[in-house]
Amino acid sequence: MATLTGISTCTVTACSFNTEQNCNAGAITVAGSPDHAECGTFIALDVRGGLPTAAAHVGACQRVECSHNSDLLCTADSVTIGAGADTADCLSYSPA
Ligand code: SF4
Questions:
Q1: What residue's CA is closest to ligand 1, atom 7?
Q2: Which residue, 60, 79, 93, 94, is the most exposed by fewest CB within 10 angstroms?
């Protein structure tokens, strides 16, 4: 099985999965549109969610035009998530 790409840092502290700028979701889905790659897992609730320790990966990525995308998976060494066009974007997005 291919190794999933890790999330090196996520600065979206408003997200329920975020702890100290790390993502605690098991895996995220990156969605968005060709002008920006948005984290589809971002959610701001009054509760915290996810795993006890940060080990999040990109489970799926819908941005097929990104140079790191292969078979709807991410092949980058790691990705950074933060504010972009939306509250939570993949800042490693690199449209081919
Ligand atoms: S770097 Fe590209 S392929 Fe990887 S998650 Fe971000 S937008 Fe998707």
A1: 93
A2: 94
